[in-house]
Amino acid sequence: MGELDPFPYRRGKLFCEDVPVAEIARKTGTPFYLYSQSALEQQFLAFDQAFASIPHLTCYAVKANSNLAILSLFRGLGAGFDTVSKGEMMRALTAGAEPAKIVFSGVGKTEDEIDLGLQRGIMQFNVESAAELRKLEARARALGKTANIALRVNPGVDARTHPAIATGMSHHKFGIAAGDALEMYRRASRSRHLRITGVACHIGSQITQVEPFQAALRQLRGIFLHLRAQSVPVRHLDLGGGLGIVYNDENPPLPREYAHAILPLLRDIDCMLMLEPGRVIVGNGGILVTRVVFTKQNGRKNFIVVDAGMNDLIRPSLYGSNHRIQAVAPGRRRTWTADVVGPICESGDFFARDRHMPIVKEGELLAIMSAGAYGFVLASNYNSRTRPPEVLVRKHRVKVIRKREQFQDLTRGESLQPL
What we know:
TIM Barrel; Lyase, Ornithine Decarboxylase, Chain A, domain 1; eight-stranded parallel barrel; 26% strand; alpha/beta; 2 domains; globular; 21 strands; single chain
């Protein structure tokens, strides 16, 4: 399958598939998120088909981009779903997901969330602590249910990614120490309300090398085989997600290269491999389109002020992440070094610092690339700003899949009267 460029330049203008981005901006206003449906489909299928030689289930990580239309798209392609909250579970179910294809992870599952999973009969709870195991057992007993469980083992593997999105070391809040896992499995095996289905891990996000995945899988494999030897009928081996994408100059493995690296460790194991990709499926299938409000100079410092802010896309402020920024109609022009900033009253409100950029004018459109993952899902209403719309394109067709918020959305549920 050839790789699609979802945002090509044609005749000097940026397109999303077969639609000029500027045309969508005229109708929708700015800022807005824009996704290529063909790119999302292609990337999901490329990932899923890389593992076609073994039993597996690709559970899309809802946290990466939770729009219902996108979840429905992946459900139609056969996806399962990795969820970490009641809201994400409800989104997956609303999008038509089969409960038997939903995994529920997360370190702080509440009784309400656990009950929903038990009542709907989800595929698996990925348990992250002894306290959670006790609570899950108690709720299953109270409801007369049996909970399918895997323990999320913390393998102590350095994912070689940004510290804020690494999750597999002993000092992280996630998972269960590998040394404690076997005793917890023994305890779970004695319960009539817990059914052990697998072993799980998740070591981080935006991982650009295969070696951390291989190291984690070797640990999971050892635990899995030990449980089998103890006649515990484990079936699922859940490697989590975390495969990275190209934002700037990264060189992450392609899905087929990722599969090639880990499949040899599974050839002699009769198991179902479960995978939880998110960013690698949606990250490069979306952009944030914004308009230049002003340009300004403070001394020798140049600024491009745009109408999107850190409330719309917080990754640069939160992680120092590098998103490419492109003019929607670049043309020939001089360049300068400038910060691209938003209107939020925070010095941390920026999309790029000291970036070599074309000199742009007020009113021009810019595209912040690779914004399909952890973009809108992290958006907020800080400074009482309404969140932007989301737009989906397939070939010549355009659909607004989330309307722009209005002022009444900001104040819904608030009281105008004090005590």
